Amino acid sequence: MGSILIDERTIHYHAVGDPARPKGRRLLYVHGTGCTGEVWMPHMNAMGDAHTSVAIDLPGHGRSPGWGFRGVGDYTHFVVELARALQWDRFVVIGHSLGGAIALLTALYHADRLDGLVLVDTGARLRVDPALLRTSRDAAEKGRAPAADRSWAYASTTPQSVVDAVEQITVHTDPRITYSDWIADDTFDVMSRVKDIHVPTLVTCGADDRLTPVKYHQYLAAQIPGSQLTIVEKAGHWMFWEQADAFTKHLRAFLDRLPTAAAAR
């Protein structure tokens, strides 16, 4: 774990391996709406034998104090500046949901910094169901998180223990910040621009994802030149928790296919 100062804001990050002396690939993970970098830790530990991983707590999330933003571009700035502060000239960015939107903007604005792009349960446009927005707004106004509704986010076969584990990470986020995140999601749209991404890309999702359905990922894979699409069965929006071994396997294979020279940068 560590923290740095970016634009006079303290930004916390979780690390597996030594970011100052990285081995293998430099992997920078970005969490989704109302979440924290802690959500990536089980997966990062699984990757720790071969790669160095860092997961950001976005502003206002986890141990990064203050407030979040209502725009994806602001979050993207902090992700790129974290990599700069770590002296990572190049890295692989891995984003889930809202984090995937941040990863897409990183690829559009900072392609020269990326060895790879991994998009997990996300989309080029992230329209949010109005009922979900209303529920989140009401929770923000009342100052308490709404009751979890697993039907939106998980496959029906996902064990309750997985749902509970993710909930333990997300439940502590201020509902006002979560609502701001949903606004950032709802206003995000790069559908006309993803064709301009020329970074090696893995697009992956759960087959039962209702929040960002398979068609979102099929669009990304069709638009981003040379990208690879992987759909994981018996998983919803939290595919990297619901089918953790499958996700780790697919990511390892993707990293192994990247140009070998990139790993030494």
Describe this structure in words.
- The protein has 265 residues and is of the alpha/beta class.
- The protein has a single domain (2-260), classed as 3-Layer(aba) Sandwich (Rossmann fold), CATH 3.40.50.
- Helix content is 38%, strand content 18%.
- The chain has 10 helices and 8 strands.
- The protein has helices spanning 41-47, 72-85, 98-109, 130-142, 150-153, 160-170, 175-186, 214-223, 239-242, 244-257, and strands spanning 2-6, 9-16, 26-30, 52-56, 91-96, 114-120, 201-206, 228-232.
- Helix 1 links the parallel strand 3 (26-30) and strand 4 (52-56).
- The two termini are 23 Å apart.
- The relative contact order is 0.16.
CATH architecture: 3-Layer(aba) Sandwich
CATH first level? Alpha Beta
User: Can you give the helix content as a percent range?
Assistant: 25-40%
What proportion strand?
15-25%
Number of strands: 8
Task: Predict the CATH topology.
Answer: Rossmann fold
What profile does the largest beta sheet have? 8 strands, mixed
Q: Which consecutive residue ranges, at least 5 long each, have pLDDT under 50? A: none
Mean pLDDT across all residues, rounded?
94
CATH superfamily, please? Alpha/Beta hydrolase fold, catalytic domain
